[in-house]
Write a structure and sequence with these properties.
Two copies of one chain form a homodimer. By secondary structure, chain A is an alpha/beta fold. In chain A, 41% of the residues lie in helices and 20% in strands. The structure holds 3-isopropylmalic acid (2 copies). One 3-isopropylmalic acid sits between chains A (72, 74, 84, 86-87, 254, 285) and B (196-197, 230). Chains A, B: It holds the Pfam family Iso_dh.
Chain lengths: 359, 359
């Protein structure tokens, strides 16, 4: 029987890159997937007053093996009743890890990058617990709660150490086949925090990561390092080649993944997956890009790679690797065919067709 | 009579770069300054149990016209009773703006950079209001409060618009003298926030900046833009040349200033000033760099430029500009004499002497 994949293009270029990813999935295994089109987004909210319909969440849970999400637009001003559907979806489905691989043979500063960013996806300032008060003098003060739990921190740390070990094994295998591998050292996890200021909350995140490192004997094979978030941004740009896996609380993870994307040339190539114990939602790191939406020039590679990440999590490793290889070939050999974000004059359709041809 | 400058080297390379800055101040105007040496830091805390002695705060307030701070070390684990003395000092002296100019004729991506980052310096997560709870299942949960006030947001926005206008005038003057100027457009302020997630707190920051833009007719000459903090890090790396002044809440300001520093080659050249209505504390953006402390190879340029920023705020514009010119010349003409962070084999003393020679 077919695997049902939910498709939630949402806003802006999401409506262009998700259909592109769908085509690639159809091509990589013609009779394997059924697709279920689901609604969410700011545009939907403007039409219906609802950003994330209950039906979407229900159908994801009851009918889909996994799903792909496009991107959401952000209103520039506060809109009563609106709240980001992707933040809500991550929480509702308990997709606690946002897994973002960032790799490039030659990145900024001419150094190779092969990083995996593991962003905690359910708490930190993203719990959106905020209050507005008016002071006696009539001016306003706003409060936001930042929540860090031992439970979520340990869970995300475990994921980071496991992924680091898995990446180590894949590199080893590649090396034995005579392949070249950017990262030479032992598997490594860099814990990103700001415990010099947030000694309690980031202190708890940090200690939870350290505790997990000790709890499982196999994790001893992973080197543990830590980096303050400000220094992390600095070092990523100067020495991107020293990082393997980075694990971070939600907001820092958001920021460093955009930073890492800049290093590989474009947000348009950086894939992500929102991962829970029972469900995976592929989602490119880029946004809805209103400035280029509807022009047919959005880079579909991030969405296509996100589809491949989804397949990996569904146990379809060989299909996933065929997609990755095709994308890599297109990126390496057809630079002129690339979309404008990569300096080319190509289109969403052109790049998608090129990938499909090489599958 | 002499102007008294407080000197707080604090930890690590602070003990090397602050004396270097002092020498430059002595040389630029031999009989103008008296220096008062004051204590603070993590090393002091380890010896005495106090990170910021009351005497230091008192003497700054009663005896000093302004001061220079070096850097503080951060303990990697939580230390009972210790809290960052620089964060405390900013708050105690109400130094509400952290002003960080980042400029380079050719930065990363081969594009010129000439940015001024204005970081709010008194609130956000830096109020350090945190709590630890134990849940019924025995695991821990930590809470941190993030505070954003209309008062502090408007105050920092005003500073940003004023600085943008002032920079515009200086550029105009330079242009008329036939000089070349990196930034070509109208003065611009980019408001950095994450109001798509923190609609109340970053919403208040954003609205306060917008309100200030309207309140003073002269601010109409400044273009107002906004950028989500994750996109800001991304765009700074891809198009650093499109930014003029950026204003940000405390933590985002911390992160983007390290990011900007990476663009100009080294944290070792990026100066800062903690500015209040009645006091200015110069402070390089770099940290205490324990890995190179005591070796005599710390780059003194950030501290020397911070001293120049202090002089500007004290009304000593011509002395400040002599220091800036000397530093620029050394950077442009004596690359081999530079410290290792800039790829040279120079020393703190060598660079300091070179600057003094060119004053
Ligand atoms: C759209 C926004 C809410 C989202 C986030 O901050 O998580 C985006 O920046 C991302 O990285 O997926
Ligand atoms: C040392 C630390 C508390 C400080 C900060 O976060 O403000 C530093 O990173 C800075 O930028 O001055």
């Amino acid at each position: 029987s077919k695997l049902t994949i939910g498709l939630i293009p949402a806003d802006g270029i999401g409506k262009e890159v998700i259909p592109a990813a769908q085509q690639v999935l159809e091509a990589v295994s013609p009779n394997k997937f059924a697709f279920l089109h689901l609604d969410a987004g700011f545009e939907l909210f403007q039409k219906t007053g609802v950003a994330l319909p209950e039906e979407t969440v229900e159908k994801l849970k009851s009918e889909c093996a996994g799903a792909l999400f496009g991107a959401v637009s952000s209103p520039s001003h506060k809109v009563a009743g609106y709240s980001s559907p992707i933040v809500a979806l991550r929480k509702r489905m308990d997709l606690y890890a946002n897994v973002r691989p960032v790799a490039s043979p030659v990145g900024a500063a001419g150094k190779p990058i092969d990083m995996l960013i593991i962003r905690e996806n359910t708490e930190c300032l993203y719990i959106k617990s905020e209050r507005l008060e008016t002071l006696p003098d009539g001016t306003k003060v706003a409060w936001a709660d930042r929540k860090i739990t031992e439970y979520a921190s340990k869970r995300i740390a475990r994921m980071a150490f496991k992924m680091a070990l898995q990446r180590g094994k894949l590199r080893e295998a590649k090396r034995q086949q005579g392949g070249s591998v950017a990262w030479q050292g032992q598997p490594k996890v860099t814990v990103v925090h700001k415990s010099n200021v947030l000694s309690v909350s980031d202190g708890l995140f940090r200690e939870s990561c350290l505790a997990v490192h000790k709890e499982d004997p196999s994790f001893a094979g992973v080197k543990l390092e830590e980096q303050l978030v400000d220094s992390m941004v600095y070092r990523m740009f100067r020495e991107p080649d020293v990082f393997d896996v980075a694990v971070a609380p939600n907001l820092y993870g958001d920021i460093i993944s955009d930073g890492a994307a800049a290093l590989v040339g474009s947000l348009g190539v950086v894939a992500g997956a929102n991962v829970g114990d029972n469900f995976v939602l592929g989602e490119p790191v880029h946004g809805s890009a209103p400035d280029i939406a509807g022009k047919g020039i959005a880079n579909p590679i991030a969405a296509i790679r996100s589809a491949a990440l989804l397949l990996e999590h569904l146990g379809l490793a060989s299909e996933a690797s065929r997609i990755h290889s095709a994308v890599d070939k297109v990126l390496n050999e057809q630079a002129q065919a690339m979309t404008p974000d990569l300096g080319g004059r190509g289109t969403t359709k052109g790049v998608t067709d090129a990938v499909i041809k090489l599958l």
